[in-house]
Amino acid sequence: MDPTEKESEDVKMFKSKAASVSLPKHSYWFDFWLFLLFDIVFFFVMYFIVP
Q1: Where are the transmembrane segments (predicted)?
Q2: Is residue 49 a part of any domain in this protein?
Q3: How much is the pTM?
Q4: DSSP label at residue 46
């Protein structure tokens, strides 16, 4: 196996991984509510537990 063959395999692998990672029509409402929940929990932890 010469170096150019290996390089083309790596490129193919990278392209296939990139395609599987990208999410089509991602809902940002889920991110919003998750962030809000995390923010509220973080506030209570900082306010009551830390001091």
Answers
A1: 32-50
A2: yes
A3: 0.45
A4: I
What is the token pair recorded at 18?
């990139």
- 5-50 pLDDT tens trace: 555 555 555 555 555 555 557 788 999 999 999 999 999 999 999 8
In a domain, 48, yes or no: yes
CA atoms 35, 41, 45, 47: torsion sign: positive
Residue-range definition of the domain harbouring residue 51 = 27-51
Kindly state whether residue 10 falls inside one of the protein's structural domains: no
Token look-up 């889920």 returns 30
Most distant CA atoms of the chain, gap in Å: 62
Residue 12 to residue 37: CA distance in whole angstroms: 39
Supply 45's token pair: 């932890």
